């Protein structure tokens, strides 16, 4: 057989929705059969969704997933399908791929290399497989492995197994972070060259809690180059003819190269959209202050959910400037989202009066500042309870790193869209959004104004924090790259400021542990990526 017609079913699964995921698989298989496809491929754990986490500890979940596989297999014809599922043998479970055809499961492969770093903890659940999979049909043969298997240095046994195959299929659930696509293509391309065979790579797409899967499934030629590629951040059925007789010609790729900012913005939009949709919300609310962070979150929300599903609330106090209040209204008007303005000054005054006897003799400080933030959080949550809005947190990574945020105040919310975006990136994404629109959705004044929480007279963020460009460099070195105090000082100088900054980061772990989930876009996001103890006396700086 000189040509094999292959389809990659790049689907958006939902963890635990066994029936819904199965229906998506069956729908793609039906379409593939109508187009004379020889082989259709689906992502890692496509029946259960990825990552299923502690659902895997429920025996009835494992049984139901296997029932779904049997049901799918009963509906197959001549088209071969590869489906990700959880297999169980003698009380152990395996991250598995089933090869099914003509109502039969003809082969099952167990993932051999289980990732156990960052957001991955597969060794908590799965046993590693022990055997390679070489699938032979009457017309062609292919190797089969799963995600991490292709990122790991293969043994000689694995290489010999793949040398007997005409091509390799890798089913994957590879989450997005900045520059991940370049890293991924480099790794898989190198393996295609090393094995001397094409690689059919199927990746998951969609948002799952804090993770976003970017799709971009692809066919890699034996020279390591991408021949065909599926869409980025969207479901797709990529169909191509694999020529096994000679050098594969490059086909039209559906994915055009996109800029870094478009890529990040797309990840944030998809992450928010799927979190809201998959958790049965329809609309969101946020505090719109007239600052850059809430402006960007409002843009992402409107793009992800539609302008009619977004409510922005301006909540000025006695310290809020006319300029920020005006900009909040302009942003909401430009986006066409619902907008309310609710002054918190009378409520704030009531708090001050109530507490005056107890605060007597002390000067105003962070207590009075945080009362304002918590009033705003209460108002947003009131709208959530009354009308069913999911409240969006608008804090960025720079602020949450340093603890420059108020528990139960501006940290309130069900989802934190830009929690993994440093301040500098927030400005860059806002500029990208304006440029994409062709006009200033976010007014220029928002970019020019010094960042401020407006919780006291003439307050500026830099009264408390180092300049954001310096802070972001320290966060990158300390959080992202795990560098120590001496190395950071060597790179950025300012020993005393670095020491103060690292102390702020370390002391704020208890706050971050109580923060809402949000979209992961960097290689080291707070949460599952970075699991620091709250009680921690290790402070070499």
Describe this protein's structure.
The protein is an alpha/beta fold and 541 residues long. It folds into 2 domains: 3-253, 4-Layer Sandwich (Nitrilase/N-carbamoyl-D-aminoacid amidohydrolase), CATH 3.60.110.10; 262-461 and 508-512, HUPs (Rossmann fold), CATH 3.40.50. 38% of the residues lie in helices and 19% in strands. It has 17 helices and 19 strands. The chain has helices spanning 18-34, 59-73, 148-151, 156-163, 180-195, 260-278, 292-305, 322-335, 345-359, 366-387, 397-402, 423-437, 444-448, 468-480, 485-492, 495-507, 509-512; strands spanning 3-10, 39-41, 80-89, 92-101, 104-110, 133-136, 141-146, 167-172, 199-203, 205-208, 211-214, 218-220, 226-229, 236-243, 284-287, 310-314, 338-341, 390-393, 415-416. The strands form 4 sheets. Strands 5-4-3-2-1-14 form a 6-stranded mixed beta sheet. A 6-stranded mixed beta sheet has the order 6-7-8-9-12-13. A hairpin with a 2-residue loop joins strand 10 and strand 11 (211-214). Helix 7 packs across helix 12. The longest helix is centred in the C-terminal third of the chain and has 22 residues, at 366-387. The chain is elongated. The model has no long low-confidence stretch (mean pLDDT 92).
Which homologous superfamily in CATH is the superfamily of the largest domain?
Carbon-nitrogen hydrolase
Per CATH, the class of the largest domain reads Alpha Beta
Mind telling me the C-alpha Rg?
26 Å
CATH architecture of the largest domain: 4-Layer Sandwich
Range of helix content: 25-40%
- CATH fold call of the largest domain: Nitrilase/N-carbamoyl-D-aminoacid amidohydrolase
Shape: elongated
- The total tally of domains equals 2
């Amino acid at each position: 057989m000189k040509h094999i017609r292959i389809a990659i079913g790049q689907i958006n699964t939902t963890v635990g929705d066994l029936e819904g995921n199965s229906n998506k698989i069956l729908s793609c298989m039906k379409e593939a059969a109508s187009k004379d496809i020889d082989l259709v491929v689906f992502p890692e754990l496509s029946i259960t969704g990825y990552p299923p986490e502690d659902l895997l500890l429920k025996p009835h979940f494992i049984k139901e997933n296997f029932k779904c596989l049997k049901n799918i297999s009963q509906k197959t014809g001549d088209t071969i399908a590869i489906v990700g599922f959880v297999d169980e043998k003698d009380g152990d479970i395996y991250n598995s791929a089933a090869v099914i055809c003509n109502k039969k499961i003809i082969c099952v492969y167990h993932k051999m290399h289980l990732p156990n770093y960052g957001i991955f903890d597969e060794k908590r659940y799965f046993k590693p497989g022990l055997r390679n999979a070489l699938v032979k049909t009457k017309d062609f043969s292919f190797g089969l492995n799963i995600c991490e298997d292709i990122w790991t240095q293969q043994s000689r046994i694995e290489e010999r197994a793949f040398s007997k195959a005409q091509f390799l299929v890798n089913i994957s659930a590879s989450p997005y972070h900045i520059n991940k696509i370049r890293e991924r293509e480099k790794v898989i391309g190198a393996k295609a060259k090393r094995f001397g065979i094409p690689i059919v790579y199927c990746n998951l797409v969609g948002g799952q809690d804090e993770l976003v899967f970017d799709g971009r499934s692809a066919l890699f030629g034996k020279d390591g180059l991408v021949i065909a590629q599926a869409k980025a951040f969207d479901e797709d059925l990529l169909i191509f003819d694999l020529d096994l007789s000679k050098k594969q010609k490059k086909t039209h790729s559906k994915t055009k190269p996109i800029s870094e900012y478009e890529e990040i913005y797309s990840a944030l939009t998809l992450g928010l959209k799927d979190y809201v949709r998959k958790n049965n919300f329809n609309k969101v609310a946020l505090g719109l202050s007239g600052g850059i962070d809430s402006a960007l979150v409002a843009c992402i929300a409107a793009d992800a959910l539609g302008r009619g599903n977004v409510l922005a609330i301006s909540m000025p106090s006695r310290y809020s400037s006319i300029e920020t209040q005006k900009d909040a209204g302009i942003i909401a008007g430009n986006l066409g989202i619902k907008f309310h303005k609710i002054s918190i000054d009378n409520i704030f005054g009531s708090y001050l009066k109530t507490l005056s006897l107890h605060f007597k003799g002390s000067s105003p400080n962070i207590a009075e500042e945080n009362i304002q933030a918590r009033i705003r959080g209460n108002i947003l949550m009131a709208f959530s309870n009354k009308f069913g809005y999911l409240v969006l947190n608008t804090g960025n990574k720079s602020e949450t790193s340093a603890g420059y945020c108020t528990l139960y105040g501006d940290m309130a919310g069900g989802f934190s869209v830009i929690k993994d975006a440093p301040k500098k990136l927030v400005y860059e994404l806002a500029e990208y959004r304006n440029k994409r629109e062709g006009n200033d959705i976010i007014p220029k004044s928002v970019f020019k104004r010094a960042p401020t929480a407006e919780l006291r007279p003439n307050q500026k963020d830099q009264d408390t924090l180092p300049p954001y460009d310096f802070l972001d460099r320290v966060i990158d070195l300390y959080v992202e790259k795990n560098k120590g105090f001496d190395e950071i000082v060597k790179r950025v100088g300012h020993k005393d400021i670095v020491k103060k900054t690292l102390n702020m980061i370390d002391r704020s772990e208890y706050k971050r542990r109580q923060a809402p989930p949000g979209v992961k876009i960097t290689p080291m996001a707070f949460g599952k990526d970075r699991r620091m103890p709250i009680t921690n006396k290790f402070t070499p700086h």
